Amino acid sequence: MFRDSPAVGIERFRSFVDSFPEIRACGAHMGTYEHEAFMDLARDRENVFLDTTFAMSAVAETYMDFDPTVITDAELMELSDRIMYGSDYPNIPYPYDRERAHLLERDLSTETQRDIFFRTARRFLGEL
């Protein structure tokens, strides 16, 4: 993906969030290669969210050289009020339902699934 790009990454994202603390910001693709730092920022900042796009799909290893299982079910449950489902549809090289299915196959509570697939996006959009 954009692993070596100076335009992306935790430092650029943190700088943006620090500059505009009133804005809700979403770290795309769970922060992928810097997912630990992005998840820490989401833990620390009420206005920081993450999306699952591509990074949590069963084919992430093939296309991104990223293993989605490094993000544990416990972490998804802990941060479910900061994580929202994303698909990048139609700009994906795999069937649309594979990403959703991979998340649903994980050992996540119904409440966590509701957050990831519905409630967190509503919070992000300011509807809750």
Architecture blueprint of SSEs:
Blueprint: H1 10-19, E1 25-27, H2 35-44, E2 48-51, H3 60-64, H4 73-78, E3 83-84, H5 97-104, H6 110-124
Parallel strand pairs: 1-2, 2-3
Q: Mind telling me which CATH architecture this is?
A: Alpha-Beta Barrel
Order of strands in the sheet with most strands: 1-2-3
Q: Please provide the count of β strands.
A: 3
CATH fold topology: TIM Barrel
Task: State the major sheet.
Answer: 3 strands, parallel
Share of helical residues: 40-55%
What brief labels describe this structure?
128 residues, mainly alpha
Q: In words, what does this structure look like?
A:
- The protein has 128 residues and is mainly alpha-helical.
- It has one domain (24-124): Metal-dependent hydrolases (TIM Barrel).
- Helix content is 42%, strand content 7%.
- It contains 6 helices and 3 strands.
- It has helices spanning 10-19, 35-44, 60-64, 73-78, 97-104, 110-124, and strands at residues 25-27, 48-51, 83-84.
- A 3-stranded parallel β-sheet has the order 1-2-3.
- Strand 1, helix 2 (35-44) and strand 2 (48-51) form a beta-alpha-beta unit.
- The termini are far apart.
